[in-house]
Amino acid sequence: MTLPFTSDPVPENWDRRGLPAWCYHSAELFALEREEVFLRHWQVVGHISDLPAAGDWLGFDLLDERAVIIRGQDGVIRAFMNLCRHRGARVVEGSQGQCRSALICPFHGWVYNFDGTLRGVARPETFGEGIDKAAFALKPLELEIFGGFLFLRFRPGPQPSVAEWLAPYAAEFAAWQSERLQPLNVVSWSNDLPVNWKSVRDVDNEGYHVALAHPGLQDLYGRDYRDIYLPDGLHISYGFYGDRPGRGWSVRNYVKHSPLRADLPPHLRRNWAYYGLFPNTVIAFTPESAQFYQDLPLSPGQTRLTGRQYRLAQEDRQTRVARYLAQRIDRETSAEDQQLSIWSNESMRSGHFEGFHLSDLEYGLRRHHDQLRALLPVMQRNEAPDAAEIRALNKELACQTLARP
Questions:
Q1: For a 10 Å CB count at each end of the chain, is N or C smaller?
Q2: Is the model's pTM score more than 0.85?
Q3: Hey, what domains does the chain have and what are their CATH numbers?
């Protein structure tokens, strides 16, 4: 089958080692990851269809920072820090909601318009010479929309605009009609795991384990699974299905009912497609549905798996049946991956763990680790540095890297 992408090839004689074990439980390294990886890179927070009307909002928390994304009276979606400018209280609480006419801080009643401007304060006469409303608007955050999905970041970072970064995905997102997706009648899902976030990514970034660890996926598309490596932290996984009826009940009936969409290009009509985004997100499409999922670190040893699911703008009964069956397969796969992540993470504290030795089919894992090393060169150290020296050592190594011709 002809594909529109040319993958970066797996090099010969590549370094098959992964990150050293200390990188998975160091609190000092985790603090650097917070600053240099997560707060400075784009995060998916939802889809335009999650905010259909003025005053609809989404909440998004990440490593002690918190955002509110809201549609204004003018129809524009904006992102702000979820911090009242008076005392820092949340102006909204939860993952999703709707405000009738304004954002009202529940602490002291400061009132903000949907565009973030300060409308008024309670007891203004108690503020001496008064409040300069223009100086106390909600703090804005970068927000961009790509294929209908909402991206924000808390600090300026190394990635370009989302449109430039994800340009290789643009044609396929358009083919999937991603801007026309509608949310399922459920709020975002989440599940906390007692693991470092990188252990979750390590499992998800390679297909070597599919054949044995995921019998449902192996039954569906394991024979025709392939990874495509692109620059700038992009990674596509395709799972082609339909050449066999499937042995398991869910797979057999899914293959039977999955809609054959003539509007899709041939290589996507019988395909579960996963579009990876560095550092921690995947946007996935099947012919009858879509979702994004991400791994949000909570601490060095705790990670929140979360995401949102979407359906086609118009779906018939057959499509709904296929979506139900796809969700059954996906739930089993997710449970299997979570257990693998726990087992993998446990090994990082064993005195007998001697590091990874990776297959060519696990090259995606190595690429992810290399991107982390580029951002945090202290990860190149095989032995754990003294905890008090990690930050200074990382700065020194980063300066050495910049100084090289």
A1: C
A2: yes
A3: 1-41+169-405 (3.90.380.10), 43-156 (2.102.10.10)
